[in-house]
């Protein structure tokens, strides 16, 4: 499976917010059909910067591409990763050219004009592309013909009735 390294600002950031930012990028990478390589999962939270960079550069050697997050140019480490990736011939993916990294909404509609957005477990979810308002990214590809509205089932977690429960076992975002 193709591996894509995620490069962005880490040093000086709130760890929880940074972790969410990189987790969101992981979702986008998975949506591209690739395996994400997340520097926050490679290194311990309190890892020495120099050791962390060695670990990250070693991880880059196993990747085919690098996804640059919006704040990558504000990070000495991400700039080093970018330069190294270019020198070893990796494909560079800029966040501006990757629409999977955060959409504020999804406009998918069925042929009858009804919205494909459903709500379950407090999360709006598109039944066609898998977009959700938590990650802002599509999570799975679902064709319109795969969604059978007549076969709606109650989600065991949120108790909402959704057509995706029969196909996936939950409303699509419960993950349980």
Keywords:
four-stranded parallel β-sheet, single chain, 176 residues
The Cα radius of gyration reads 19 Å
Helix content: 25-40%
- In terms of per-residue confidence, which ranges show pLDDT below 50 for 5 or more consecutive residues? 140-150
Kindly report the spatial arrangement of strands forming the biggest sheet: 2-1-3-4
- How large a portion of the residues is in β-strands, by DSSP E? 15-25%
| SS element count, helices | 5
Structural class: alpha/beta
Number of strands: 8
Morphology:
elongated
From the structure provided, what is the oligomeric state, counting identical versus distinct chains?
single chain
Mean pLDDT: 75
Biggest sheet layout: 4 strands, parallel
Listing every helix as H and every strand as E from the N terminus to the C terminus, the arrangement reads EHEHHEHEEEEEH
Distance linking N and C termini: 26 Å
